[in-house]
Amino acid sequence: MTKVFDVAVVGATGAVGETMLRILEQRDFPVRNLYPLASARSAGKEVLFKGRKYRIEDLAEFDFAKAQIGLFSAGGSISAEFAPKAAEAGCVVVDNTSHFRREPDVPLIVPEVNAHAIGGYTQRGIIANPNCSTIQMLVALKPLHDAAHIERINVATYQAVSGSGASAIRELADQTARLLNGKEIQPPESYPKQIAFNVLPHIDVFLDNGYTKEEMKMVWETRRILEDDSIQVNPTAARVPVFYGHSEAVHIETREKLTAARATELLSSFPGVTVLDTREPGGYATAVTEAADTDAVYVSRIREDISHPNGLDLWVVSDNVRKGAALNSVQIAEILIRDHL
Ligand code: NAP
Ligand code: 12T
What is the pLDDT of residues 14-45, one digit of tens each? Predict the structure, then answer.
């Protein structure tokens, strides 16, 4: 008999939470009772799951003893308060926020990269889902690191607005429509400047070293997930007027020389990666055309760095809400129920 599980989705009305419901459906996750949770503002509204309507409940009133798995994506302060309560009640939490990612007794997991570390969840009852930009970069870099040992990563990201939630998606759409109709935009709320037809070199808060927190998450999380504190990471994270799909220009330096041909071979057989790289117009992946609404991490523009003997360049694209958040969380839950629950 296959086991079935009671699953709470915290933040079920959000950009990530809604996608979690779709992915649980699409992958036929063995859900017995589903509990979609959100704030009191949304309590009583309905969401669809497998053709059935489910009433959203207020997170603050929910008894987590009713669920064995909790998928959290309602923001860091919500996770800080409710994830430990859920864990205490016996509900294992897969948390999408950055709140627990640096805690040594909370495993930080990308299934294709470090699934072996998942067992550590028993310490706190919490597993952290990494940052979207880190996840897609590491799925692409893992086979290269195993083969040639990456010493340093330079990366520039081009991140979609869906990473900052439903209100930012509306803001890009609204600004675009107004500007195309010759109207002035409303004062920006999701970002400090206009995002339509613009690029902002700023994601999350500024830190004392001049990097943003989004950039430093890529440094901290890469070292934890690859289990290598010596790896050097130098990121610049930018927001672009794209709805779904983060793109990354990734430049690596390896201990052993890696040819573009060998890298292509390694990437082509790595789970979760699709190589699209025919070195002709259109022979590469883009956010809208390939990545949005799909599960793969696409790798294109694989070439040897003409400025460094052991350098290699890649273009990496993936749907930030799926592999960068909801899909990765559901994959973690799948390993959890297969091996541990
Ligand atoms: P969103 O579209 O703004 O959705 C926020 C969700 O949180 C909504 O369902 C909202 O419910 C719920 N919520 C807000 N305040 C709440 C409260 N006090 N109690 C209960 N629920 C509350 O945001 P999103 O893009 O889905 O992202 C949500 C969170 O996921 C982010 O804050 C971030 O921490 C995390 N995230 C992680 C990644 C990643 O890289 N892995 C990517 C994106 C997001 P209402 O409808 O009731 O307001
Ligand atoms: N600020 O979960 O704005 O660390 O794109 C993910 C996405 C934080 C996170 C974004 C963010 C996270 C964003």
Answer: 999 999 999 999 999 999 999 999 999 999 99
Cα gap 78→58, rounded to integer Å: 12
Q: Residue 186 Cα, ligand 1 centroid: separation in angstroms?
A: 23
Tell me whether residue 251 is one of the annotated catalytic residues.
Answer: no
Ligand 2 in reach of 304 Cβ (< 6 A) = no
Going by C-alpha positions, the residue among 118, 111, 83 that lies closest to residue 8 is 83
279, amino acid identity: R
Return the SS3 of 202. coil
Q: Is residue 132 among the annotated active site residues? A: yes
Rounded Cα gap, residues 303 and 319, in angstroms: 23
Determine the longest span between alpha carbons in the chain, in angstroms: 62
Q: Give CA separation, 288 vs 164, 177, 242, 285, 294, in Å.
A: 17, 18, 8, 9, 10
pLDDT one-digit tens code per residue, 76-100: 999 999 999 999 999 999 999 999 9
Question: Which residues is 252 bridged to in the sheet?
Answer: 153, 312
The C-alpha atoms of residue 143 and residue 253 are separated, in whole angstroms, by: 14
Q: What is the pTM of this model?
A: 0.98
Q: Candidates 20, 47, 93, 96: which one to mutate for ligand 1, based on the most atoms within 8 Å of Cβ?
A: 96
